[in-house]
Amino acid sequence: MFIINCPFCGEREQSEFKAGGEAHIERPKQPTELSDDEWAEYLFMRKNIKGIQFERWNHIHGCRKWFNMVRDTSNDEIKAIYKMGEKPPVK
Amino acid sequence: MKNRYSIFSLIKNAFSYHENWEKAWKDPTPKKEYDAVIVGGGGHGLATAYYLAKKHNMKNIAVVEKGWIGGGNTGRNTTIIRSNYLWDASAGLYNHALKIWEGLSQELNYNVMFSQRGVMNLAHNLQDVRDLKRRTHANRLNGIDAEYLNTEEVKKFCPIINTSPDIRYPVLGGTLQRRAGTARHDAVAWGYARGADEMGVDIIQNCEVKAIKRNGDSVEGLETTKGFIKTNKIGVVAAGHSSVIANMAGLKLPLESKPLQALVSEPVKPIIDTVVMSNAVHAYVSQSDKGELVIGAGTDDYISYSQKGSHDIVEGTLNAILELYPIFSRMRMLRQWGGIVDICPDASPIISKTSIKGLYFNCGWGTGGFKATPGSGDLFAHTIANDEPHELNAAFNINRFVSGDLVDEHGAAAVAH
To answer: What is the largest CA-CA distance in chain A?
Structure first.
């Protein structure tokens, strides 16, 4: 359990949020031209990093807005939080 | 040849105050080269090594484990064994394991305390009822024992369940697999370790893999904390850390690693002689031989390797437990822990070759790997030895995420994954 500082609402308990998985996976620009391998890569393959991970969260029991987070998955320490569309912080 | 465990060896050793038991497995230093190396000394990894040696005559092999054997998810699960899966591929896989479980203590000469006390799955709404009835029929067509119980029959089989229609999620019925049950999880790891060790397998603990050495499209060996080990075949059975190992070989897997929590209560006298699982409210409970209630909770929804998990998950599970079993309202919980489970998008495992020659993965067991331990080891050993999958694990290849031929057990199994 940890506290998340929602960029819109401030500090709230993690149980108010829903994790949305790995961030910055870009939707294919030309879906019709994708091979099966490329579809599999986009839909299913994940970095699943132990360590510093960039991920999406939704304040589902609050403002219901999405935002991004940098978190160390080995100890659940939050390193940075930034809004959708903003550039990820450099490590 | 190891001395066999028996009532006579027990009596004999009693005279020397149990101080002279033979070591169940050696503590070898790694050799320079092996025919195959298994990464991960949990139940699945040790079973893989055991069947490689026993059925495929590969004796020059090693199991490397970064901690101690059985110290990961093997020692953290809730020990439930069942095979009542919906789809044919899953039914084949898990029933293969269940059949091995039934003779495992004799085969290993090690009491894994396999107890076929039955597993009951409860239905709490009309959709549950329909799903569970459908699964009962599907199981029977696949030769798996399954019964559908109405509310009275559920109450008769497990009298402490609150079957009042007034509770928030009333019990409308359930399924029962009588051949299902539990086993002692540590004993499974130790039994396979002892058996593998006897056939010459090196079980190397405190040996963490740091890198996988590749030569083009094939593997050459492993860089570990105990030095370089040369081998042409690497079988990875690293559960929650599968993606970490895959990353070393430049592979990406369709996995997310999340904490799955469980907890045990203080020990009490026998009160529940079966396993009861509930899909809709996500709570399952059984009682260990020590008398503790063993309670399984759900997974957290965020990726984490911290083996902790969040409190609200435990709270939700205990809410459900208390509603179904008011008798437990004053029980105190003794311990809580988390294990890191690697979950596939279709909640089915991967037992497969990869695009790299000599590199095999057995992963993605998610929240339900313990029950499959013997079958998983047997089929993975087959896959490694023959460089081809067995017909029972052919559907669980890694290419299904490209072809789209998924084994979609998500929510279709007895408990929502």
So the answer is: 43
What are the residue ranges spanned by the domains of chain A? Answer: 3-25+34-83
Alpha helices (H) in B365-415, listed in sequence order: 373-386, 400-403
What does R_g of chain A's alpha carbons equal in angstroms? Answer: 15
Q: How far is CA A62 from the centre of its chain?
A: 17
Contact B62, B201 (CB under 8 A): yes
Per DSSP bridges, beta strands B61-64 and B36-39 are: parallel
Question: Cβ–Cβ of B306/A74 closer than 8 Å?
Answer: yes
Using CB atoms, which residue from A40, A48, A57 is nearest to B257?
A48
Long-range pairs, B316-322, Cβ under 8 A, ≥24: B316/B282, B317/B261, B317/B282, B317/B283, B318/B283, B320/B169, B320/B278, B320/B281, B320/B282, B320/B283, B321/B283, B321/B285, B321/B295
CB contacts < 8 A, A to B, total 76
Contact B256 A48 (CB under 8 A): yes
The ipTM of this complex is 0.95
H/E run at residue B222: strand B218-224
Mutate to test the interface with A, among B302, B344, B348 (most CBs of A within 10 A): B302
Give A-chain residues touching B248 at CB under 8 angstroms: none
pLDDT in tens, B167-219: 999 999 999 999 999 999 999 999 999 999 999 999 999 999 999 999 999 99
Tokens 């809410």 locate to B319
On whether the CB atoms of residues B197 and B169 are closer than 8 A, the answer is no
Distance of CA B155 to CAs B81, B146, B160, B166, B325, Å?
A: 22, 17, 7, 15, 12
**CB-CB: which of A14, A44, A76 is closest to B401?**
A44
Whole-Å CA distances, A77 to A70, B184, B259: 9, 35, 15
CATH 3.30.2270.10 fits A3-25+34-83, yes or no: yes
**What 3-state class would DSSP assign to B294?**
strand
Flag if A73 and B304 touch (Cβ within 8 Å).
Answer: yes
Which residue of B402, B406, B408 is the best one to mutate when testing the A interface, meaning the one whose CB has the most A CBs within 10 A?
B402
Identify all chain A residues contacting B401, using CB atoms and an 8 Å cutoff: 40, 43-45
Among candidates A13, A46, A74 on the partner chain, residue whose Cβ is nearest the Cβ of B254? A46
Question: E-strand spans in B31-127?
Answer: 33-34, 36-39, 61-64, 80-81, 119-123
d(CA B352, CA B379): 10
pTM, full prediction: 0.95
Question: For B216-242, what is the mean pLDDT?
Answer: 97
